[in-house]
Amino acid sequence: MLIKKRPAWAIPSSEITPEPIYRARREFMTGTLAGALTLSLSPLLASGARASTLEPLDFTEASRFSTDEKKTPFEDVTRYNNFYEFGTGKDDPAKYAHEMSVDPWSVVVEGECARPGRYDFDQLLKPGNYEERVYRLRCVEAWSMVIPWIGVPLATFLQRFEPTSKAKYVYFETLHDPEQMRAQRSLFSTIDWPYQEGLRMDEAMNELSFLAVGLYGKSLPNQNGAPVRLVVPWKYGFKSIKSIVKIRFQEARPKTTWEMIAPQEYGFYANVNPEVDHPRWSQKRERRLPSGLFSPNWIETRKFNGYGEQVAGLYKGMDLRTYY
Question: H or E element: which one contains 121?
């Protein structure tokens, strides 16, 4: 799949990397009052989450992988989002994601596996086996959250399709429906929809990789990736693809959306790493939301987002400055 080609000088910087990323950079580099005000008020200016439509989920208590750090309030988690199918503003998903219907929903499974096919969502993920995992989420834009996700281990889910020995990678794809996702109708988008992501097979089968169907004890709000999304807590947030409609087991490494748009800035691995700065801003610190106007909540970023004990071995011998 090809990205629309234009000379680099003809592409507005706000299209290559949406404005919120530039805003995060300015706030990080300058610490200005205006920047702090923008981040602290953005969630308050957004439309409210559609809490009335969210169904309670049955799940076991927080697993051993959960952090005991203070959780980010539900209001911030559901009102401050990146979901570019609905716009580049942080409040756009909360404003417009209700236009997407998630019932019925199906997922196509294909490629190097014994059980390909189209599966109804209710067949794939039935209530009763869900667990809660409280994970840190680190965005590449240098802000972060702590979110109590509800779902199942990704490895358990993928094993149901009996991937073959040729399956070296797992490809994921987001819904492509311009009628329901307004930003996909834009003539100015440089993203060649649908949104695409991928993991190496050993990453996908790692005990931390998670398939989420809810948060805060209820089903996922649309703006957070309903009805099913990926959560890979040691990687930057853009790897945790939302509203999944296709999964493919394949031998070759898949190209991913941000890698295709700006490979010098966003690599395939996207591991959280304070030792490797983004070309245009530092990754050494992050703003943990909520963050107040007069008490900005800056914290130090940890390698692999603090999950190195579980995942560092996956990258033994690799130069993570090259394989960023």
Answer: helix 121-124
